[in-house]
Amino acid sequence: MRIAVVGAGYVGLVTAACFAELENDVVCVDIDKEKIKNLNSNIVPIYEPGLEEFVARNKERQKLKFTDDLRKAIAKSEIVFICVGTPPKENGEADLSYVEGVARAIAEVMSSYKVIVEKSTVPVETGEKVAKAIKSYNSHNVDFDVVSNPEFLREGSAVKDFMQPDRIVVGCESERAKQIMAELYKPLKAPIIFTDIKSAEIIKHASNSFLATKISFINAIANICELAGADVGKVAEGMGYDKRISRAFLNAGIGYGGFCFPKDAEAFIRIAEKFGYDFKLLKSVQEINKAQRKHFVNKIEKALWVVKGKTIAILGLSFKPDTDDMRFAPSIDIINQLQSEGAKIKAYDPAAMEKAKSVLRDITYCNNPYEAAKDADALAIVTEWNEFKNLDFKKIKSLMKHPLIVDGRDIYNPESLKKEGFAYISIGRKDVF
Ligand code: UDX
Ligand code: UDX
Questions:
Q1: What number is the average pLDDT over the span 281-308?
Q2: N or C: which end of the chain has fewer CB within 10 A?
Q3: Residue in 18, 28, 260, 366 annotated catalytic
Q4: Given the DSSP bridges, would you call strands 344-348 and 311-315 parallel, antiparallel or unpaired?
Q5: Average pLDDT, the chain
Q6: What domains appear along the chain, each with residue ranges and CATH number?
Q7: Distance from the CA of 154 to the center of ligand 2, in angstroms?
Q8: Is position 18 annotated as part of the catalytic site?
Q9: What sign does the CA torsion over 275, 276, 277, 278 have?
Q10: Could you give the C-alpha distances from 377 to 32, 315, 371, in angstroms and in order?
């Protein structure tokens, strides 16, 4: 099929490359000319396993093209995916101005039937607004359908999540659009759930909010475990065997970040409010998540007694491993809080340092964990990159001023670090000195 994907960000680029891999003819459009220029020179602006290969291969065989000419791309396509940003406004609501702009552009150039697919995470009722926007600018009065097809891609595994989805959700109101979407997704051989548009839009917000709720729940349990002298890792393991609960998303730590959970939970709270429902549960999820970062900083302060003038090595800056994304990363709050207490920060991250430099200043960026650990009074684990799991602890201990590790992601075994001569503090477990 002939597809236009509008927005070459974390979602749009993966969507375009994967549909091209599935033998469709895809044009990916972006307003950012620099981004398009780079993509046309095979420079992929985001770090996603498997994405570079898909982009290169499908450009090579002419199944994937990049342009900044929105109208031309839309005119040549039968399906248009809207994957532009929906960033939070001041009041937490999703800013839909980019979505509206694309809808207007589609209406102005449309001269034959099209399926317009909203893939960006949007509040319920956006589908109706997109349809209204197209109708009011649709000078040729051409037939079209709007479809909601939310994405469930996790950063760091987005290509895999696209090509092997648990489910595909399609919200549409016409048989014609349903047939086209069924045909498009047929090669993936995954369960497709067809719903009305509003339900599809809510499935996305409800799914992300539920996952965020699981995380804040286990972090609340971690706080209780710390006070009771229990081990949250064991609790999560014991809970996880219950298939109704499942072990996934029960990793206690410094909480969630990224461009989706914080933004989507906030937007969902606002949407509910607009309908007259006070989403107290989700507000508590957000509060617990925010408090977890402060709790982690308090642990460092308690262990060091005085933070002012001390050197703290931070391992991991991205909001999670296997990505370079710094958006809403917990490391930003944690480092800002430590710097406001007068700490000197050294940091290392395998992928996110370039992006971190534009949001975190007055930091010594190091080339590896050992350089960061040198002369540090404390070593703090903020993102659980695999390479931090097998450090040479004898070397780390010899480099540090003070053998103290504060683990925000519980990646180490307390007893083995104690044997290595470290004071070790983690989340939801007993401290060992
Ligand atoms: C986007 C949505 O913001 C998010 O809500 C949804 O869950 C997934 O899609 P993401 O792809 O991470 O998330 O956004 P971002 O990385 O900001 O990429 C958006 C792209 O759209 C940018 O490259 C931007 O240049 C482009 N864009 C934005 C346009 O091409 N036209 C516009 O009018 C606005
Ligand atoms: C999430 C959803 O998983 C995905 O379905 C949706 O499309 C986009 O948002 P993403 O934000 O990329 O994906 O990453 P995810 O792996 O879900 O982690 C989100 C945050 O939760 C990260 O900061 C991670 O560190 C944190 N997390 C995750 C925990 O703190 N504990 C967990 O057990 C799992």
A1: 97
A2: C
A3: 260
A4: parallel
A5: 95
A6: 2-195 (3.40.50.720), 209-433 (3.40.50.720)
A7: 7
A8: no
A9: positive
A10: 43, 14, 13
